[in-house]
Amino acid sequence: MIYIILSSFVFSFTAPFIHRIFKKYSHWVIFLLPLGIFTYFISYLPRICTTECEVFTFSYPWIKSLGIQLSFYLDGLSMIFALIITGVGMMVIFYSGAYFRGHPQHGRFYLYILIFMGSMLGVVMAENLITIFVFWELTSLSSYLLIGFNHEKEESRKAALQALLVTGLGGLALLAGFILTGIAGGTYSIVSLLDSGDIIRNHTLYLPALALVLTGAFTKSAQVPFHFWLPSAMQAPTPVSTYLHSATMVKAGIYLLARFNPIMGNTLEWNYLITIAGVTTMLVGALMALYQTDLKKLLAYTTVSALGMLVLLLGIGTTLAIKAAMVFLMVHALYKGALFMIVGAVDHSTGTRDVTELSGLMRVMPFIGIAAAFSGLSMSGFPPLLGFVGKELIYEAHLHAPNAAISLMTASIIGNAVNVTVAIMVGIFPFWGKTSATAKKSHPVEFAFWIGPFLMALCGVVLGIMPNSIAMPLISPAVTAIKAQTILVELKTWHGFTMVFMLSVLTVALGIGFFHFRDKFREFAPRLKFLIPISPSRIYDYLLKGMLRFADLQTRFLQNGKLRYYLITIILVTVSMVCTQLIRMKGLPVSISFSGLQFYEAGLVLVMLMATIMAMLTPSRMAAVASLGVIGFGVAMIYVLFGAPDLALTQFLVETLTVIIFVLVIYHLPYFQEFSSTKSRIRDAIVAFLAGSLMTILILTARHVQIAQQISTYFSENSAPLAHGRDIVNVILVDFRAIDTMGEITVLSIAAIGVYALIKLKPKKEKSK
């Protein structure tokens, strides 16, 4: 399982070379990877779809000290998402072979898309919270590359940055939520957390953990007020929009909510927060779709609405609502993925995505038109397609909702009615009727353009006629995983002339009415311009500009170009932070005793202090060098007094050589000059005093803190038998800490090379004009 997931990352780096070799047939080769992974997951279905709903765990030690495993978990919920990710992925890769034909960065697209596919598989199959976060952030990074694929366009770069910032900040919130959840549950393992739901829900950290986890999920799944990044991301190429923004990335938040339902669900906070977010997003996305004319924007806003519907169902939380959510998850992936690819084909053929300029395309692209019709009918919930089954389950779940059933039903009817309107505008209107001038200039599209959407639309038809074929193998295990109890699901296409069916009829009629008045909605849209300054997208712009201005101000203040201020800032911040912690300790384990101090030791210290004062106050450079030499020789004498003659000898040699070098260099230099003011010198003296005092306190404190067994005993016992040396200091430098010594030698060597270059290399003389 680990190798299967990581294969996407490994294979992604070979994809550009495969494209160079096979050219226009590369999509046939790269298509085999998601096909193989899809087949691999299918092989687990017979064991997962049993009444016991078997699960599989695969683990590999990762960070042992933190108890973090690189572990993966395959159950019914992981399975349905993994099949969507790989199934839609192979359609998109095959489709992109025609869409990017002749594009100079075609191979790079395969690299990005396969990294994203591996990241999404990691998210839905990770068994450890930290592992989920790692793959979660990888989806944000890879989506940034995909959204900004056409990086020469400013709009693409802005959309990619916006998506990265929104989802990235949500990811940081999610990490904090995961950490709090792990603390509350005592583990980061999802398998263990699933059995600790009551403990977590009753923990004092539950509410902050819930808020942070929901923030991460809502940003990724474009819930209000974070929904604005998804329509902006339509600047991405159509294959990217198909894969990320209809079937996979935006569903990551849905997966997270479903996975955490047994862990954090079944509380008022969970139900109310998710339900409110879902119903608000559903209505906002639906209403904003009504006045759009760009085909991709139409699909984008209805995707926002559909994501709100999924979140709403998870918020209701009943078994019926969870079942409706899992069916609608598949429904949406099929019809929305197909419609996005259809829009890409239309744009490629006609050069426009403006729905007002398109009609009569059926004569030019019949297979695309058929796929669009069936996908649109599924989106509108027309029988006997799978969309009809999903919509009836949604209405039934709303009718039996424990709270606010009428309000939820009303909102759902409005949202689904807009879906009908958009389905007509995208799936029917551009292909039927009188051939427009734009359609007359269009050209037929090749096989790779229409086979993907055609097969996905066909799946919607077949599964709508035989919905029970996915009930036991896919829906039942997924619902079982979310509800943490065995649940058997049956699906039917026709239930008779029930209340739910009458609501479906009402929805279709209302959607046709919205379509009839679509021009009125577009005319009314400019009247809402007064809301733009307080819209989430505009608030994002304000925050981004404010952050950049603050960064500029901070940089001007801190990065002022003067080394002395850098050092002062570092020292003062360090002193304040360390002192704060020392004060919190309420007493320092420091004790100073002069009882064992010998007179010659005191005299040596006194001489070193006098030399220090002399070095600071003397106006002569030679006197300052001599004073520093006295300090160095004093340190060497301390080594002698404490039984380290070899170290003292090294110190004597170094100090002697240093003094000689200093004398040779500065002998002819003038006396010191005073360039700083008295206030500056007083300030520097205070900073120096604080730094010295801090180091003194830390050294005295460290002498009384024992956090582990002293390593000196180990060195003294093992120097001779292991390193064959009796000089412990030399053995430490040469054997026990040889890599440190090698690093120091390397640094000195590089510095010597730099000095040599500065001395020997002479600047070229500028040519006279």
- In percent terms, what proportion of residues is strand? under 5%
N-to-C span:
69 Å
Mean pLDDT, nearest integer? 87
Quickly count the helices.
35
Q: Report Rg.
A: 35 Å
Shape: elongated
- Summarize the amount of helix as a percent range: over 70%
What about the largest sheet?
2 strands, antiparallel
Q: State the secondary-structure class.
A: mainly alpha
Extended strand count = 4
Report strand order across the widest sheet: 1-4
- Which spans have pLDDT < 50 for at least 5 consecutive residues? none
Structural write-up:
By secondary structure, the protein is an all-alpha fold. The chain has helices at residues 2-12, 15-22, 26-30, 32-42, 45-48, 76-99, 106-125, 129-147, 154-185, 190-194, 197-201, 206-220, 229-232, 238-247, 252-264, 268-289, 295-316, 319-350, 366-380, 386-399, 405-428, 437-440, 447-465, 468-483, 499-516, 518-524, 536-558, 563-584, 599-617, 621-641, 645-666, 678-702, 711-723, 728-736, 738-760, and strands at 56-58, 61-63, 68-69, 72-74. It contains 35 helices and four strands. It has a two-stranded antiparallel sheet. Strand 2 (61-63) and strand 3 form a beta hairpin. The longest helix is centred in the N-terminal third of the chain and has 32 residues, at 154-185. The two termini are 69 Å apart.
